[in-house]
Design a protein that fits this description.
The complex is a heterodimer.
Chain A: H1 3-11, H2 18-27, H3 30-44, E1 49-53, E2 55-59, H4 87-99, E3 104-108, H5 117-130, E4 135-138, H6 141-151, H7 155-165, E5 169-170, H8 180-185, H9 194-206, E6 210-217, H10 223-240, E7 243-250, H11 265-278, E8 284-286, H12 289-299, E9 307-310, H13 317-320, H14 329-338, E10 342-346, E11 352-354, H15 392-399
Parallel strand pairs in A: 1-9, 1-10, 2-3, 3-4, 5-6, 6-7, 7-8
Antiparallel strand pairs in A: 10-11
Helix pairs in contact in A: 2-10, 3-11, 5-7, 6-7, 6-9, 9-10
Chain B: H1 3-11, H2 15-30, E1 33-43, E2 58-62, H3 68-81, E3 87-91, H4 92-96, H5 102-114, E4 119-124, H6 132-140, E5 148-152, H7 159-172, E6 177-184, H8 193-206, E7 212-216, H9 217-228, E8 235-240, E9 244-245, E10 248-249, H10 253-263, E11 267-270
Parallel strand pairs in B: 1-2, 1-8, 1-11, 2-3, 3-4, 4-5, 5-6, 6-7, 7-8
Antiparallel strand pairs in B: 9-10
Chain lengths: 412, 280
């Protein structure tokens, strides 16, 4: 089928099939792809609003046994650079987030064998007790799978316990490319297969949670596999309607074991626009200014994106791999308005919560993203001794303890 | 294109339609070809001892000379070792500051071109009150200006500036390449992506008498430079000869620039500092 015929079908609202999507993705001029995507975006969001959220992207630990070869953030168990954030450190980060108008914590981390499910449950309960209004957008599907294996509980049970402790929604991280051939090459097949990732999301949606979906492209996958990823998401969304948004971001190669080069800006815009065309059952597509920078991030608003993501405040994972872009609320709002849209703050569920905070009260400008750990802060908090770790070091430490051992839950 | 139409385009949010128009204008002139130049930039203070890679296709001396002799000596030293490579140096404003009047300025320029200078490296179109007079002085000295540039971001419409460049070109024919993106921005309020691609597109549409619309690869980065190629730009300036980072030498800039051009479905063609094509 010709590009013009496929484009006409898209304009008339027909659902696109795999072969036609491939033809568009590979052959259509960038401007045509953008126009098709923008047309769909305007049809879905005719009010001319571009949303964003003020939250903080906190990584509670960088210790990870998954060892994905595309990740520059993780440290193996026993590494002197490994860390776990204490509850108090997390509370301080939440205080800072609330002070600039944030209402959510995006909490993700490594697969740390010394953090059992009880640690997460205690943390969530403590956060909710202290900050009842704060939304916890936490634990990507591979982390849930990790906790399922660690606790020897079914994914459904793990999710139900996390929800009972305060989990509000699940971020779509760890999806990479939902094709097992790719996941094996990226050494992330064992952390979660494509089916396992989708299975966690299915369970989360069943439990009433809304989640996002991501795609990390530009490593070892083919263009067809990027499309396969999108079509698998579309299929699950048809089934559950649980995804709120899709976020594509390019693999960041610096300091990773895999290395390689980053996909170009034009490839990003093509991928974003194609996603808007394929994912006809997703309401929201985010612009990934974190990986593309503010300029291409803003241009994304003409290529299908209707959301500028998060002000973020803190970011560690992408920065570890070489990208260090920063946009505070002033900058995000300026970019949205400059592109001709109306900026609105939202929740994770994409409910509008208001106008920019800095227009209602003074908020300090931020020209850099914060980091997980500051110099001089302890790498491993003392409270971790209260939990039963699974690493060799933790087991050795338990053997040397007096009879009775450590408690399995943190003291109140 | 008339000024009022260009002003309307500056106000548009439909960057895809604008980009399509500019891309068509660019393709009519250059087809799918994108030229780029690898530049070795030398600091004036150390130019006389500086070494550069043999891959450099232009050697550019940067810095404000104290006097004509210092400028001349630096140029002479570099030209002697350049093995025929084009040597560019200084901005038009920096050189103008060395001369007391127009006649003296022509003499200054003749000395520098006599020392082997291929072109004045750049002329900021927003940095000179009277652009035409110094440009004509360069022509009177039988010299060239490699590129016309914009010094500072204002967030205002660039159309009056672009019209001034068009008028200058009409009367002098001196503008071989124009780089419309500002070289200096306020870090707390940088130009936006929309502003940048609109500037590039409008420059292409408005400057129908200028050969190349240029983007500085090193200054603006691969992402914006690549996108600009689909909004009317056809030439990438200042591709580094080598890329040394704190972690050691990284992927060769030559491969990086070619990869970005190919990924935009365009054809990379290397040129030298005289705008001579080196490969196809």
């Amino acid at each position: 089928m010709s590009i013009d015929t496929i484009a006409a079908g898209v304009r008339s609202g027909e659902r696109i099939g795999f072969d036609d999507a491939r033809e568009l993705y590979r052959e259509a001029p960038l401007a045509l792809l953008g126009a098709l995507a923008h047309g769909i975006r305007l049809g879905r969001h005719p009010e001319g609003v571009v949303t964003y959220i003020i939250d903080r992207n906190v990584n509670y630990t960088n210790i990870c046994v998954a060892r994905c070869n595309f990740c520059a953030f993780y440290r193996p168990v026993g590494s002197p650079d490994g860390y776990v954030l204490s509850f108090d450190e997390l509370f301080r980060k939440i205080d800072e987030t609330l002070a600039v108008g944030g209402q959510q914590l995006l909490l993700q981390g490594g697969h740390n064998p010394d953090l059992p499910l009880e640690w997460y449950l205690d943390l969530f309960r403590a956060v909710k007790a202290r900050y009842p209004e704060l939304r916890l957008h936490a634990l990507s599907p591979p982390e849930v799978v990790h906790l399922s294996r660690l606790s020897r509980l079914p994914v459904r049970e793990v999710i139900d316990r996390l929800v009972a402790a305060g989990l509000d929604s699940i971020p779509g991280g760890g999806a990479e490319i939902l094709v097992d051939r790719v996941r094996k090459l990226l050494n992330c097949y064992t952390k979660a297969t494509a089916d396992e990732w989708l299975g966690v999301m299915r369970e989360a949606h069943r439990a009433g949670l809304r989640t996002t979906a991501t795609m990390m492209y530009g490593s070892v996958e083919t263009p067809d596999e990027r499309l396969e990823h999108m079509f698998r998401l579309r299929e699950l969304q048809d089934e559950t309607r649980g995804f709120t948004a899709f976020i594509a971001w390019s693999y960041q190669p610096e300091h990773t074991e895999l290395q390689g080069v980053e996909a170009t800006a034009v490839e990003y815009l093509r991928t974003l626009a194609t996603a808007r065309i394929v994912l006809d059952n997703f309401d929201n597509l985010q612009a990934s200014w974190v990986t593309q920078g503010g300029k291409v991030g803003q241009l994304s608003l003409a290529f299908g994106a209707n959301d500028m993501g998060s002000v973020m405040i803190e970011e560690n994972v992408v920065r570890a791999a070489g990208a260090s872009y920063c946009m505070d609320e002033v900058e995000i709002v300026r970019n949205i308005e400059d592109a001709g849209f109306v900026p609105k703050r939202r929740t994770m569920h994409y409910e509008i919560v208001g106008d920019p905070v800095f227009r209602a009260r003074e908020v300090p400008r931020r020209f850099g993203l914060d980091v997980a750990k500051h110099e001089g802060e302890a790498s491993i908090p003392s409270e971790l001794a209260s939990y039963r770790g699974r690493s060799r070091a933790a087991r050795d430490a338990r053997r040397s303890e007096p009879p009775g051992g450590a408690p399995t839950s943190a003291p109140e | 294109m008339m000024a009022d139409e260009a002003e309307r385009l500056w106000e548009t949010h439909d960057i895809l339609a604008l980009g399509t128009r500019a891309d068509e204008a660019r393709r009519q002139r250059h087809g799918d070809r994108v030229t780029f130049v690898r530049v070795a930039t030398l600091a004036l203070d150390t130019a006389r001892e500086a070494r550069w890679s043999s891959a450099a296709r232009e050697i550019r001396i940067a810095g404000r000379p104290h006097d004509v002799t210092a400028a001349e000596q630096a140029i002479d030293s570099v030209v002697r070792r350049a093995e025929g490579r084009p040597v560019t140096a200084f901005s038009l404003a920096e050189l103008q500051a060395l001369a007391p009047d127009r006649a003296g300025f022509v003499d200054v320029l003749r000395r520098l071109f006599g020392a082997g200078l291929t072109s004045v490296a750049s002329a900021d179109v927003d940095g000179l009150e009277d652009l035409r007079q110094p440009v004509e002085a360069v022509l009177a000295a039988d010299g060239h200006i490699a590129r016309f540039t914009v010094a500072r971001a204002t967030h205002e419409s660039p159309v009056p500036l672009f019209l001034a460049v068009r008028a200058l070109q009409k009367t002098t024919g001196a503008v071989r390449a124009f780089a419309p993106l500002p070289r200096s921005v306020d870090g707390s309020r940088p130009t936006t992506g929309y502003e940048d691609v609109k500037s590039v597109a409008i420059a292409r549409l408005l400057l129908d008498n200028v050969g190349s619309i240029q983007v500085d690869w090193a200054l603006h980065g691969p992402k914006l430079a690549q996108v600009a190629l689909l909004f009317g730009a056809d030439d990438l300036d200042a591709v580094p000869v080598e890329d040394e980072s704190a972690d050691g030498r990284r992927r060769a800039p030559l491969e990086e620039v070619k990869r970005n051009i190919r990924a935009a479905s365009l054809t990379a063609v290397e040129r030298d500092g005289r705008f001579g094509v080196l490969e196809s």
